Structures are given as C-alpha cells and as structure tokens.
Amino acid sequence: MPPRRNANRAAAPGPVPDGLNPDKFEKELRSLAKKAKSRTWATETRERLSPYISAFALLTLAGIYSNVSQMALSPIFGSLPSAVWHPKLIAAASFLGWAGSLFIERRLPVHPATLIPVIAIYVPVVQFFLCNQSSLLTATWGPLVIESITLAPITILTAACVASDLEGIRPGLLPKFIADSTPGLTSLLYFKVVESFSGRLLSQYVGRTIFVTRIGLEMLLAGIYAILAPSKLVLLGIPAIIHTTLFNYHLPTPSATLALQESLKAENWTLIDRRESVTGYISVLESDNQGFRVLRADHSLLGGEWVKFQGPQMAEPVYSVFVMLEAVRLVEGPQPIIDSEANALVIGLGIGTTPAAFITHGIDTTIVEIDPVVYEFASKYFQLPPSHTAVIDDAVSYTQTLARETDQRFDYIIHDVFTGGAEPLPLFTLEFLQGLNTLLKPDGVIAINYAGDILLPTPKMVIQTILHVFPSCRIFRESEAPTEEAIREAGQDFTNVVIFCKKSEDPLTFRNPVAGDFLQSRARDMFLVPKHETFLSEFRSEEDVGLLMNNGTAELEGGQETSAVGHWEVMRTVVPPKVWELW
C-alpha cells in the first residue's frame, strides 16, 4: 500500500498575493488612519458646500455678464433696441441649459465649466467684427444675432453647470413637485437679483477705470471664469486676447485710441475725446469735411455746433430745435421780463446751446444734468459759458426737493432730456410735471422738447399729460410736417416737437423779436421764432389714452421699442454708419 501524503502539506499556503503583502497592508492602514484624522468638520463642510459655492459663483458672473453684454451693444444699436430680445434670449438659453444639463455633460468631451472662459475671451472679438456689419444686421436683428453667438452659449453652459451642481438637492418637507422645482426657481431668483443690483452698481462706476469699461469688464469676467474653472483650454483664447488688447479700438487705451483716430480719419472724422459714463458711451466727434462738432451718447447725438462758422457772440448750433427752445423769452406776459432780473432752470444739458444763450442774455441760469461727463465735455469742447449754477444730479429727486424745501421759482424752465430714441418716462409723468409747475412763477413759461414717432400711443399720452398740467400750450414741429403719403411710405413720423406752455390760462402768444434776441447768430435769425405749428387735436386720440403716472411707466416701456428703432435709422442718416460703428 503506497504511503499516504501529508495532509498538512496539501493545506500549506502558496505565495502571498501582492494585495495582501504585510508591508503594503500596513501602509494602507496608516494612510486610512491619516485620512481619518484629517477629515475634520471643516473639511466635510467645505465638501458639502462646494457645489453651492460653484453654482452661485457662476450665477453671480452670469448676472453681471447680462448687463455687460447690453452695455457693449448700446453704442452700436442703442440701449433700447439692444434690450428688446435680451430677456427672451436669457430665458431660452437658461431653459436649454437647465433641461439639457445631462445631455451636455455626456456629449461634451470636457467639463462644461471649462468652456465658459474660452467663449468669454472671444466675446469682444465676435462683437468687434459683427458690430461692423450693423447696417446689414439692423437694430432690430443685430442684437439678437450677436448675443445668440456670445451671451447665449455662456448662459446655456452656466445653467447646465448649476443644474449639475444642485442635482439631488430637494427640500424634504415640501411636496414633490415643489421640491423638484425649488433649485431652478431659487437659481433664477438669485440671477435676477444679481442682474438688477449689478446693473445699478455698474451704472454708477462705469468708466472710472479701464476695468469698469465695456470691453474691460468683458475681459475681467473672462479672467474670473478662467480662475473658477482652470484648464489648458484657456490657451485657445490667446489669439483673442492679443486681438482685444492690441487691435480692439473699443478698449480705452492710448494705443487703441490712436488706432481709432486713424480709422476715423479714413472716414473724414476726428475724435476729440471719449469716455464711458453713467448714461452711456460719451464722445466728441468732428466732421473734417463739413466742419461741425457733435456730442455723442451711445447711438444718439445730444447736440452739435459749427466749427467753421462761428458767430461773433455765440456758437452756431447744428440743430434748429435747440434754438427754438430759446423762444420762451418771446412769450408775452402781463409784464415784460427783464433778462437781467430773470432766472431759468434747464433740465438736460446736451452741448449747452439753450443755457449758453440764456447766460449771454444775462439770465441767471441753473443747469441740472445727471451725467458728469456730458457736463465736462459741454464745458470743455463747446461754448458753454462758466457763469451758471451746475447741478449734477437726477432731475426727479432734485426738482422734488427744490419744490418742497425751498421757495425758489423760475421765469423760464427748459425741459430737454430726450436721448437714445426713447423718452425717459419718469421725467414726463404727471407727478414730475406738477413739480415743474410748482417751480414756475405765475407768469413763467416752460418749453418741453419731445422727440419720437408721434404716430405712436406714448407721445399722445405724454402730451395729454402736459396739457393736463399746463392750461395754455402750443406745439411746434422742428420742420414742416410730411405729407400723408410720405408718412405711409416711411411707416413713421419721427420728429422733434417743442411744447410751449404757460402756468396761467391766458392765450400763449409770442412778441416780435428784436435784433438783440438773435445774438448776431444766423441760426437764431432763421430758427428762433417757432414756425411749424401743429394743432393740439393731432395729439389727441379717439380713445382716451389717459395720463402718464409714476406707477404706469413700466407698462409703456415696451412701446418705446418701435420709436427707438426709428431713431436709430434717423441717426444713421445724420452721421455715417461707419462712424457709429467706430465707437
């Protein structure tokens, strides 16, 4: 019988697997112990809060970027046309990003957050080239096309990242359908709060440094995006950074300004000065061929004067409407008003055509202008005499305080606040006009410059409000009224009108001017006396449009879009499109 094998030999262990190596096992234990010690309350809290921090950081940047995108388009298209499609585009892009977050994450070869800096870096480049095609794109479609390529992708990727960060967060005490929608609604609410707050903040500080200019802000935000989501992909943005810093003349650097000057010279225009400010992009331009100088605010002109043709006493204005405002001095009253004893309140400065004439006549003049750069440029580059009282403030709050807390009253009030193709509605409300009525002396006269498409409902409401406050008024157009056929062909009747009103109910009449009224100015000789009167009935609607109240301005803002586009088209005939684009 063969001998039996040792049973213990069959059970003897073989070679020890690498994973169970005693040294390695001990090392793993030490590593786990070290991790356990380092996992503090602070570490766990940071890990739990990380998705929230990431989400709200992206939403903060998106809210700021929403305003910056609008600011960058306003010099080319105007603030109102730029805003028509903007909220709809933001809403659509947010929905696509949030609803398709899972699809976006799976389809993209990289994390969505790492693409945002690259897109943001290229935004100024896209705007630079597409804005040069603004005449082809038009003010109606241009902002939509440009923001679809620039702002929309950033918004889609932001919404997708936020949805991913907040996935699975559901308040347990709420019903399921409410809990499911809570992250999205909270994100939207936070975005709107940031958008509103940052818009007000930017309007106060824009232009103070290069980092709070339109292009400077876009580059600053792109840099912050790159810090939040660092990756090698940002190297793809180097060509865009080079273009923006060296060739984008919208960036307010000395080299960019020099490049802008050369481009404008090719169009026979010269840039005198430029600045970004609280009411928009402000610049002073001069036509080399025609010999006049204008003050620009975004896609609008605040006034202009001839450089080649200077009067012995006064500058010769380009626009007749500003001369017509001076006709308040010609309105007859019970007793003649002596210039040296009179005082005037001018709301809205422009280049200072009307207040300069008042000052030259010896009238004590107070100017209320909200934009400090407009006031600086009017004083520096146009013939605004220094002997006046300047108030850099919001006209609504200033006049309310003046009417309520002082007994100062004025012989003349000039209301000239139009800009950008739309009425600043708070300055045409019943409450504001009643305040001006209070500030007017019993025999005083007010002249209100109103510009817009007078076929639309808003002008009718504004003028009816004026007629409700002031009992005796007459309305004059800047130029002769077009024929009905011309209005049908144009589809609009965009014009400047001046409404002269008295505080008393006596009929408003003008005295015959004397030589001194014209200040040896050819423009005043031609345009001082109002000529193209229009009947008040033309501004009365068959339907009662009501009065414009403080609480009703928001409802009318949408109706200003058509007027703003019409103004954009008019401005393109006054100054060449290329000059507008070379802001």
From TrEMBL:
Keywords: Membrane, Polyamine biosynthesis, Transmembrane, Transmembrane helix. One of its GO terms (biological process) is polyamine biosynthetic process. The keyword Transmembrane helix applies. SUPFAM superfamilies: S-adenosyl-L-methionine-dependent methyltransferases. PANTHER family: THERMOSPERMINE SYNTHASE ACAULIS5. The keyword Nucleus does not apply. Residues 1-13 have a biased composition (Low complexity). It comes from Cephalotrichum gorgonifer. This is Related to spermine/spermidine synthase family protein. The chain crosses the membrane at residues 49-65, 85-104, 111-130. Residues 1-22 are annotated as: Disordered. InterPro entries: SAM-dependent_MTases_sf.
